[in-house]
Amino acid sequence: MAKTLGQEFTKGLWAEVPPYRLVLGLCPTLAMTTGVDNGLGMGLAVTFVLICSNMLISLLRKVIPKDVRIACFIIVIATFVIVVELMMQAYAYALFEQMGIFIPLIVVNCILLGRAEAFASKNGVVASCADGLGMGIGFTISLVILASIREVLGNGTFYKIPLFGPTFEPFAFMVTAPGAFVCLGLMLCVMNLLGKK
Amino acid sequence: MRDMLKLFLSVVVFSAVSGGLLGGLKGATQERIEYQQLVNVKGPAIREILEGASNDPLTDRFKIKDGEVERNFFMGVFDGKPNTVVVESSGKGYGGNIGVVVALNLESDQIVGVSLTTHSETPGLGARAKTDPSFVRQFKGLPVKEPPKVKAEGGKVDAISGATTTSRGVCGAVGEALEIYGRLKGEIVQKAKTIKKA
Prior knowledge:
The complex is a heterodimer.
Chain A: H1 5-10, H2 18-22, H3 26-31, H4 36-59, H5 69-91, H6 93-99, H7 110-120, H8 125-155, E1 157-158, E2 161-162, H9 177-195
Antiparallel strand pairs in A: 1-2
Helix pairs in contact in A: 4-5, 4-7, 4-8, 5-6, 5-7, 7-8
Chain B: H1 2-49, E1 61-66, E2 69-78, E3 81-92, E4 97-105, E5 111-116, H2 128-131, H3 133-136, H4 164-194
Antiparallel strand pairs in B: 1-2, 2-3, 3-4, 4-5
């Protein structure tokens, strides 16, 4: 059942959107959504790594021996993650400091290894690129939505811009770790309701 | 056996190519990253210990060759005289290197202030060396002649409870800064004369 390129791209946006449908990559989804800037930065970093690693793994899929493919995938992914880390340190230092440990942790993000194993190692370069782009954008949008809810309610700001007057009492629970779980749970619930026809 | 070798070689080649590329990229971005750390991490620390200086210590910086390495120095101008120099150094802490900046008075040969820059100490324990100002305040006014030590080693510095290794690391780093200062003081004084007395 061959899908068109467009379908490979759009499945990541809705039908298989990583955090809500595949329920993958939850660690950054929970930890990096305290603010829209964090969520966006994380999403873009993952998108970049996902596209690059998908393309390279797809290119090398005939060269990589089957028995050590996971090790090779991890090396490819780790390489791109360090590229992101160095570039972020050089050009977006504030974001780098905020995201801290979660940048190197992209290496063990299940979305990356999952897409490498399930898609890129079996499909062509262009399809893998479309898959990576779709999944990456889907992940970024998911993070931004969750971060918006948490930041607006928990901090009264959106992208650090105050929305309400000084009388607004922030619902601080939303930006704490338990708040992240509750928010994510509600999002999953909404996604399931919408998907049910 | 041949299969094993093939598997082994492919992982080795992958790692080697990746390592080589990243090495190159690290070299290419190093200068830019150093600048970012200067502005974002060291900058505030240096301004803090040189509080009240009439110039911008980050602009009035110079490098002196110390054997193989080049070291950064920052000058602070007080009462119209460039008499305070900031020396960078590092010591071994609990979670890796602890970077410090030490401000020293060129006339009285005393420590003016100490501040931590980059570190990876345990939050809540060792990291208090940076967040709790009462620890680094102890170094203020100490003479440059003797390297500071924690009380357990016969020195004067009260270690942070639960973070002796960190406290020792900071003392070691300050000691190293004093050593650098002692070694290069002549050149620092020469350079200080070229600083505009803003």
